[in-house]
Each structure stands twice: as structure tokens, then as C-alpha cells.
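just leaving the lab so this will be short. what follows is a protein written twice so to speak, once as letters and once as C-alpha cells for the fold. can you read through it and tell me how you think this chain folds. anything you notice is useful, everything is just below:
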Amino acid sequence: MRTQRQVVDYSLQRRALLREVHSGRVSRYEVCDASPYLKSAARFHGEPTEILCPVCRRENLTHVHYIYGDELRQSAGQARTRAELSMLAMTLREFQVYVVEVCRGCDWNHLVEQYLLGRDGLSDDEAGAGDGQADGAAVATSAMTADGSTVRRRREAGR
């Protein structure tokens, strides 16, 4: 995504934990403890991957994206799809995204990465209207609705 910034990758921590599990120093039951809410979010909002579960090696992992931020209000803490994240990134100034990988077979779960999204990451040229409108009109248009057809109609009416 264009506005993704301040990325924190947890792959080293993940690798160390998996090394502990495979050596027998950490029990599989200690790391395969996905909550019912996380499993439900993986089922309904998760993005399937081609990555095989590192613990059970039977199922592919699912990535769940959780969002947090002051502008989100009641939506903070909800799981969202990547398509929804793109739309939110163009309408909100800034919010935090946490990506969790989940195995729906054995309940393995681990934080993969976190990053910031939002309009604050765009340069002035990108945040402004790319179609010749004034800066304020473009921001107001993108913030009015999440429905793509409505956005197009409002842009044409503003010309």
C-alpha cells in the first residue's frame, strides 16, 4: 500500500519461538492457543496465504489485519480485509495495523508485523486531487463514502 510506513517485522521473534518449539523447550500447547475471537476473525475477515503452518504443517496460514487508531472510534480493534484497509488509508489520517498469522487447524498464531496507514503518509501531490480538483474537494469526496460508484458520481458533479 502506498501509505504504509513505520513497519515493524516480527519474523526474528517468530523464528526464535519456532526453534524453541521444534527443540522441545516450549510445548506446542503453549503456542497453539488462538482465542475463539481470533479464529472467527480468521474465518470471516482473514486473507488466506500460501504459507504452510510451521507447527502442524498441514494447513495454510491465514493473515488477520486488526486496526487501531483515534479516528476509528468504535471500529478500533476490528479485523479488516486488505481491500477495506486500502479504502480506510485514503479516508483516515492515520491508524495502526497489526497483522496476525493464524492456523485454523492447530490454532498456531503469531504477530507477523505492524505498520501505520493513512493519508498522513502521502506527499502533498498524492494527497491532493490527481484529477484537477482542489485539495479540499478531493479529501471531502474520498471521505464521504466507501462505495466506489458514489465516489465517481460526486467527483463528476464537482467538476
In short: Confidence is low (pLDDT under 50) at residues 129-159.
